Structure formats: structure tokens, C-alpha cells
Amino acid sequence: MPSAKEIYEAASREILRDAGESITKIDHEQLQRMVDLLIMTKAKSKRVLLVGAGRSGLVARAFALRLMHLGFNVYVHGETITPSVGKGDLVIAISGSGTTKLVVTAAEIAKGLGSKVLAVTSRPESPLAKIADQTMVVIGRTKEPLEKDYLSRQIIGEHEPLAPLGTIFEVACGIFLDCVIVILMAMLEETESDIRKRHVTIE
Questions:
Q1: Pairing state between β 73-76 and 134-137
Q2: Using CB atoms within 10 A of its CB, is residue 143 exposed (0-12), middle (13-18) or buried (19+)?
Q3: Are the C-beta atoms of 92 and 60 separated by less than 8 Å?
Q4: From first to last of its 203 residues, what are the pLDDT tens digits of the chain?
Q5: Cα 133 to the chain's mean position, in Å?
Q6: Which of 7, 80, 89, 180 is surrounded by the fewest CB atoms within 10 Å?
Q7: Which of the following is catalytic: 14, 21, 147, 170?
Q8: DSSP for residue 116
């Protein structure tokens, strides 16, 4: 059995490499449309609702926090204080597979209410992407291991993937969305001082 150090070094190299490759392959036209949609939504004082399940839900919450820091009227699906969405509001649905039932259902309902739906997913052909008005593709894991056991993979020379399930999508998506926040800061002429004023003071 390899040591914790050996596994850590191999896994960290893989995660950094694959997440790095993912965010360098972002479609710049999709990115521009996403940024334009967010700015338009804010300008019209419409609501932004973030939807995600599991670890993608944590990524959605982190993005929602930063949008709040930029003055967006933003909510997270499932919270007790989340209001309804309607015509002109924006729903950002995050799912690597694009098949997560909760996320797809929420997107369908939002679309029926007249909201714009932006899908952030690895799968542009997925049910979520087909529902969405716009799709932002963030590439996740592209290869499944032939052998499930770590040691067996080392023996046969199959050294990847080590990162389980949706790790690469979630890490890459988090980095990508933080980059979107930097773009919005520049375009909205928001400074770190502005953000700090909106940051929680009771902690």
C-alpha cells in the first residue's frame, strides 16, 4: 500500500493538472454571454437564484456569496428565505452531469415561470443544457478508471484518474466562477473595499 505522502502527491498533481486544463478550455463566447446576462440581470434589479446539489451545491453557495458582495439580489435554492422567481429573473443551475434530478426539475420549473436559465455543466448535450437558455461548459473528468483499486491501477500502469466522481468539475467550476467574479468586479467598477462593506459583520 502506498504511503499517504505518495497518494497525496499523485492526487494533488492530477487535480491541479486536470482542473487547470479545464479552465483553459473555457469557451470565451459562452463566458461573454454569461457575464452579459449577469450584468443585465443586475441592471434590471432582477433576482438571481443558484441551484445545485451535493458538492456542486457548495460551489453554487460560494458563487452566490460573491454575487451578494457585488450587490446582486441573489438567493440559493432550498433556503427558507428564498422567494419565488419569475419573468426576467435568472436561475443558474450547476450540475457536472447535467442529469441531477433536483437541478433539472428546478430549471424546468423556472423556465415555465419565465425565468432565464443558465446551465453550468460538463455535458452540453445533457437534459439540463437542453432546457437552458444559455449553457456554460466547464469540463470535468473525461476518463473513467478501468481498475477501481488504486494499487491495481499502479501495477498495470493506469495512473489516473485518482480524483473521485465529480471532483475535477467541482474544483474547476469553483475556480471558473471566481474568475467570473473578478470580471464582474472590473465591469461593474466594484473594488475590494466595496465588497468588504457588504461582507458579514457578525461572525
A1: unpaired
A2: exposed
A3: yes
A4: 789 998 899 889 989 999 999 999 999 999 999 999 999 999 999 999 999 999 999 999 999 999 999 999 999 999 999 999 999 999 999 999 999 999 999 999 999 999 999 999 999 999 999 999 999 999 987 555 444 554 554 555 555 567 777 899 999 999 999 999 999 999 999 999 888 888 877 76
A5: 16
A6: 80
A7: 170
A8: E
For residue 160, give the nearest of 1, 56, 5, 17 by alpha carbon.
Answer: 17
Cell triple for 202: 457578525
Q: What is the 3-state secondary structure (H, E, C) of 169-199?
A: HHHHHHHHHHHHHHHHHHHCCCCHHHHHHHC
Domains and CATH numbers, the chain: 37-198 (3.40.50.10490)
- Active-site residue 147, yes or no? no
